[in-house]
Amino acid sequence: MVGSKRLSSRLLFLYLPLAFFTVFLLFPFYWMLIISLKPNSLLLNMKINPLFLTQATLEHYRYLLTNTDFPRWAWNTAVVTFGSTFLSLTSSILMGYALGRFRFRGGNLAGTAIFLAYLIPPTLLFIPLSQVVARFGLYNTYWALILTYPTFLVPFASWLLMGYFRTIPRELEECAMIDGASRFQAMRRIILPLALPGVLSAGIFSFTLSWNEFLYALVFMGSGEMKTIPVGTVSDLIRADVFQWGPLMAAALLGSVPVAIAYMFFVDQYVSGLTAGAVKG
Amino acid sequence: MTTAPARTAVQALPSTWRERVRQWLDSEPVLAYVFMSPGWLILLLFMSYPFVLGIWISLTDRSVGLPGGEFVGLRNYWELLQDSVFRSTVINTFIYGFVTVPFKLLLGLLLALLLNQVFPLRNLLRAALLLPWIVPTALSSLAWLMLYDAVLSPFSWMLKDWGLVESNIAFLGTRTNAIISLCIANIWRGTPFFAVAILAGLQAVPQELHEAAAIEGANSLQRFFAVTLPVIKGIIVITTLFSIIWTFADFQLVYVLTKGGPANSTHIFGTFAWQEGIGGAGKLGMGAAVSLYMFPILAVLSALLLRYVRSQEA
Question: What is the CATH number of the domain that holds A247?
Fold first, then answer.
């Protein structure tokens, strides 16, 4: 009696709402998947129920990988993502270390400036930045994105790492330095390994944000063969309002897979990064 | 004989020089500035400089292909105020940035409270339900573009199948429909962010307090307001401010779904700046002015956020 009452209340207050959220949040992904596998003949036939897959084909994936520039976009995205992540992570480790562990004049001011820089959105800067990119001769090169993505990656990653470095007691490296280690050895051998979860979080975030970036890639990479996956898919696969939904959904799915994988492996780092960076400040 | 002292001098010089550099680097303030320099160099070149340049460009009639441009004072800003498309852009941005927030907050809070329960496959579900937030928005927006398609939309199909509507719904065909559709897609993307942030905050809620309140006879709603809410209040405020800033300054979702259409009626600041400055006529000065109209509101929101974060730290 008590058990069944408990079960029905769990059903009503837990499983039912969870089912609602699952359908709401995952339906678009389900849709991408079935459309990417559905033959064109069934796709446009509105007499049959469009919600289910009765017949599957890999034709859209074959088309995407052989008849479009998608592989090239994937390569571009990877180059830009790894380049900007590496650059941002290196400068952010140094910046976060300085802000988190050194006492110096202007330290608080620098921390505040970093926080405010994190709040400046790309939509505020992209027009003058396109002029800067052109003036430096970077337009339509990988450097255009590798050097501009750090403007939103460095503030975030530095802020995150600053928090991590602050939690490590100063005595640890002071002891190491008394034992004869130089500051750099103490930093590399003792502090950095302890801050590794933070470095990992910052790295995954930088990877995701670079992979997903759209506006700078749209404006600074004009030609078809320099485009990234999001920009190429949105602008080149949609031609003159003729939607090739199959290949489009296949591209949307394939383009999401790397970040989904990175995140599935490191979901805890991701969540702690999200909360440390975005919520604690 | 004569070469020996010279050699020592040559050897001594680098060693004292190196010694001096090492001493210099041992001072924390110096090392701090050395460490910060790569980061600040990037931010100065690609953030501060374009920001100042943007203010200058917005005061000129510079356009794509015509470098320089003439100083026109505040004319771009003035002309925008007369422009009905810009005025609707302002309204749209406020709807998009502010009206979606209570939905994201409530749904996110609810989802966080659900995910904080114990049930089978909890970790898998927690991971899967964050997906809308982490995948590239431009790509997930393509799925929404098809879900909203005038002919192929499965929503229209279902509603027709259930006999609720006669013909397909023009989800993106009129201004009102398109703005509602944009807001729903935005709520879809933003809810998981709220959920995960609040879920992290819920870990800090002391379990003993809950139990004590339950013994005192408080029901679950009372316990939520008396015990849970005070602990997660800080996270809720900060998450909300972040979300408003990001949504206010969004671009991709609107660009992919409507490009500001139909008839320029659904632009937000970002897409209108793009259309004025890059996409359409290439009026860089005008586009820069559109972007900079965002600045006052962003400054106010950032100041609020900064003050709140400071007060939490203290």
Answer: 1.10.3720.10
Asked if A113 and A181 sit in the same domain, the reply is yes
Query: Looking at the structure, do residues A99 and A43 belong to the same domain, yes or no?
Result: no
User: Looking at the domain assignment, is residue A49 inside a domain?
Assistant: yes
Give CA torsion, residues A127, A128, A131, A136, to 10 deg.
-130
Which of B261, B274, B247, B244 minimizes the C-alpha distance to B145? Answer: B261
Q: Is any Cβ of chain B less than 8 angstroms from the Cβ of A103?
A: yes
Of A100-114, B34-48, B140-154, B260-274, the one with minimum mean pLDDT is A100-114
Same domain, A113 and A185: yes
pTM (2 d.p.)? 0.91
> Would you call B146 and A249 a contact, using CB atoms and an 8 Å cutoff?
yes
- pLDDT mean over A15-39: 95
Q: Residue A62: inside a domain, yes or no?
A: no
Nearest CA-CA distance, residue B6 and chain A, Å: 32
Q: Which of residues 227-246 of A touch B (CB under 8 A)?
A: 229-231, 233-234, 243, 245
Select the more confidently predicted residue: A207 or B5.
A207
| A1: pLDDT strictly greater than 70 | no
Q: Are residues A113 and A196 in the same domain?
A: yes
Helix (H, G, I), strand (E, B) or coil at A199: helix
Same domain, residue pair A73 and A20: no
Chain-wide mean pLDDT for chain A?
88
CB contact under 8 A, B119 and A278: no
- Tokens linked to A1: 């009696």
B98-115 tens-digit pLDDT: 999 999 999 999 999 999
Cis peptide before B262 (omega within 30 of 0): yes
CB–CB contact A234 B138 (8 Å): yes
Domain that holds residue A21: 2-57
Q: Does A23 touch chain B (CB under 8 A)?
A: no
Question: Does one domain contain both A182 and A83?
Answer: yes
- Chain A touched by B236 (CB under 8 Å): no
- For chain B, the average pLDDT equals 90
The confidence score (pLDDT) of residue A280 equals 41
Q: What is the pLDDT of residues B286-307, one digit of tens each?
A: 999 999 999 999 999 999 999 9
C-beta neighbour count of A125 within 10 angstroms: 26
Which of B272, B271, B296 lies closest to B80, judged by CA? B272
Query: Which residues pair with residue B71 across a beta bridge?
Result: B60
B75-313 topology per CATH: MetI-like fold (1.10.3720)
Nearest to B85 by CA among B252, B221, B263, B253: B263
Our count of domains for chain A comes to: 2
What tens digit of pLDDT does each residue of A30-42 get?
Answer: 999 999 999 988 8
Q: Does some domain include residue A64? A: no
A53 and A119 in a common domain? no
Q: Is the pLDDT confidence value at B12 over 70?
A: no
